[in-house]
Fold this protein.
Amino acid sequence: MAVYLLRRLLQSALVMLAMSVIVFIGVYAIGDPVEILISPDADQMERERAIKALGLDLPLWMQYLSFLGNALRGDLGRSFVFNEPALQLILQRMPATLELAFGAMFIALLIGLPLGLYAGLKPNSTGSKLVMAGSILGFSLPTFWVGLMLIMVFAVQLGWLPSTGRGPTVEVLGLRWSFLTWDGLRHLAMPALNLALFKISLVIRLTRAGVRETMLMDYVKFARAKGLSPARVTYVHVFKNILIPVVTVVGLELGSTIAFSVVTESVFAWPGMGKLIIDSINVLDRPVIVAYLMIIVLMFITINLLVDLAYSALDPRVRLENK
Amino acid sequence: MSASTAETAVPPAKAPKVETPFRRFVSEFCESKLALVGLIVFAIIVFIAVFAPFLSPQNPYDLAQLDIMDGRLEPGTRDGADTMTYWLGTDDQGRDMLSGIMYGLRISLMVGAGSAIIACAVGASLGLLAAYAGGRTDTVIMRLVDLQLSFPTILAALMILAFLGKGIFNVVIALVIVEWAYYARTVRGTALVERRREYIEAAQCLALPTRRVIFRHLLPNCLPPLIVVATMQIARAIALEATLSFLGLGVPITEPSLGLLISNGYEYMLSGKYWISFYPGIALLVTIVSINLVGDQMRDVLNPRLKK
């Protein structure tokens, strides 16, 4: 186990290093930040001073090494636009994104579980066919367009919910959260629902498949034979067992939810990491792009590593295969 | 494309003469009315996209035909010179939305299908190679696939476009890079089973060149799952392109795809001018759903495990 752990950690570190090279070269080798950042009216002296201040006069590999050295100390450069450390800029916006992602996950379970349970228990009823058709639609609908339509209906036509922004926030544990106020919740509702759309379909399908499989199990037959009420069989024996795989998958989807929040945040002007990265790409604010990508890569490598480790701890076959 | 060949063969109703695998496939495909509707809708969409210059009331790229005074007109309004009706309204430039959607479909389908075909060629070749060569080649290719699939597609595409910048060609490159892994994994799975069959052994005994064994003997037998994945991936590619264009990272503003049309309408949404975003979105949705319906049915028909 220790050897496996070490190998897996080393692999992750290598991937991280490779990604850092790709990201750095990709972002720094294409285009010229000087053109964008320095006013075209500036004279030669001013230009050279600015280039020196930004470290853009050094050869690319020197820039990379200093970038790597700094990155290991947690310094991913300063934003050209905000003139603040890029890492800090992103971390400031992370709570907003996490709030949105967790809100979406919560909604996905809240809506997806009951519908999936219903579709699994009564697979041939009209209602469950509607649910399944709806879930296909959920997979097919382009997220950003649904977001626009939500704004059109609930903000413009009905005027029930605010269309953009995050609303007032409350500071808890040093971070600002908006779900603790009523107005903040109203701001959160639409973006979270929009982001949840895809996951709702996923949860419905997983739950339905799980229910149909579990209903055939011996322990369910036994529980029925014992004379337990159908409600008790459903909610205790079946539901508890399908919850494990569903929650596992939903947990694994957290990473992709955070990635997809790029779209939702742009639609609803939600001040999170995703909106920051899109804005930064549009003005070529390279340190922020690099920092964002590195943080996301780190996050995904960590998630994948944890999943692999958990699997190998639970399932000896995985460990043997990797020997 | 398999969808269009199947479409031309649809009008059967004549007594089937000999049961070829293709005929069987067509008749089984037609068992689902919904899939048939999807196929017909998709055929119509392709027709509209291909013949957009002849069908559309206006050339949306020809600035001489646009009148800025006609900007943001409601659906069904006549134009200033009273020569045509804007059935779906106009955008901020005074461009007829119906024409814009027809031309947008062209770009969306071209990018979607183009990237899917290239990704399929790249992915399938690598997948076949991995399965056929085995050993270290297999490990290296599949590690790459794992790495690719562990990142969400939208993020990987975003990253590539952040490097390359906007442009139709760059979007295609980005879509190919994020999609090839799906094909590689699918093909490798089938090819691993197929390469142990006798006909491969026979081909090897005949001392045929490896390339010929792979592409003429192994590939045709790995096609069914590949076709299904390719169909689904076209829909995904179209959706992804629309999303990237909406974010301002996809196609350039001079050649708007459906995603960019929707994005253009975003700022007018809040003042109640819904049609600039609404109708391109419907076109996008119908396209994606019709492809998914066809793909779904193809998967059911071509999956040997679901055979009665």
Chain B has one domain: 32-52+85-300. Residues 244 and 250 of chain B are 5 Å apart (CA to CA).
